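Quick one:
INPUT:
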């Protein structure tokens, strides 16, 4: 006999409670309380490496050496500004793909689609993209998302949850598997909007510390908005709307100018492309 819907809901609630009880709370770079610990850092790094290897096997890696060096230069200039222990070992892959996507994974893996150059038209705009993606990693968003999704449904595909960010995000499909539009709107997607906004904050700070103009993040998103065409309503999206994002980036850019100017005065003046 099938269990009743209330019984299933009760069991699901119990499973979530048990999982979260085994997890821990931490504070994000912006001061937000996070629930993490569904997997250890070592496990997440291993899964990040597996996901990255799968991406390289399934997608064509670009043979454009100049563009690959360009991306590597920007990634290196950004990761040098991370805390000790997070700076070394970042791996970069450039994929021949016309979609304007990029992603970063636990374990220091960065993937960039060649289509990103249509919207990231100079090194500062590319830095805005990559700093945002690195921001997801250093803010433990993958750990947070995996923990939440493990609680939402036992056995949920974790590799799909890992590649979550504005670029190439599989979170919408994963959320559909976890219970449809109601789960998207009520459980997973609002937190993803929070993570996206937080990655914007962390990334814009990082690019300024590395000597990139934080105002260029605004121009990047204007380019993204132009290229994006029609978009879903903000309330049913994993990301802030482009117009909201541009306004928030603009408000922060002026306050980050002293950080940017100090970085330039200290010699952090990237010349990547």
């Amino acid at each position: 006999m099938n269990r009743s819907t209330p019984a299933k809901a009760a069991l699901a609630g119990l499973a979530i409670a048990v999982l979260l009880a085994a997890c821990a709370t931490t504070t994000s770079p912006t001061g937000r309380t996070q629930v993490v610990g569904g997997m250890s850092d070592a496990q997440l790094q291993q899964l990040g490496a597996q996901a990255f290897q799968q991406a390289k096997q399934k997608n064509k890696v670009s043979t454009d050496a100049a563009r690959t060096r360009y991306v590597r230069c920007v990634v290196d200039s950004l990761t040098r500004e991370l805390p000790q222990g997070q700076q070394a070992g970042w791996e970069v892959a450039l994929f021949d793909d016309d979609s304007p996507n990029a992603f970063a994974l636990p374990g220091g893996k960065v993937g960039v689609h060649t289509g990103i150059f249509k919207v990231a038209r100079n090194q500062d705009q590319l830095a805005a993209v990559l700093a945002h993606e690195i921001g997801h990693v250093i803010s433990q968003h993958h750990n947070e998302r995996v923990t939440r999704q493990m609680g939402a449904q036992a056995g949920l595909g974790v590799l799909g949850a890992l590649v979550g960010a504005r670029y190439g995000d599989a979170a919408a499909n994963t959320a559909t598997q976890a219970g449809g539009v109601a789960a998207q709107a009520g459980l997973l997607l609002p937190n993803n909007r929070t993570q996206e906004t937080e990655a914007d904050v962390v990334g814009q700070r990082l690019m300024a510390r590395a000597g990139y103009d934080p105002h260029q993040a605004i121009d990047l998103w204007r380019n993204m908005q132009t290229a994006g065409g029609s978009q879903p309503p903000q309330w049913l999206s994993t990301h802030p709307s482009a117009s909201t994002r541009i306004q928030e980036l603009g408000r922060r850019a002026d306050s980050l100018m002293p950080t940017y100017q100090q970085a330039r005065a200290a010699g952090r003046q990237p010349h990547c492309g």
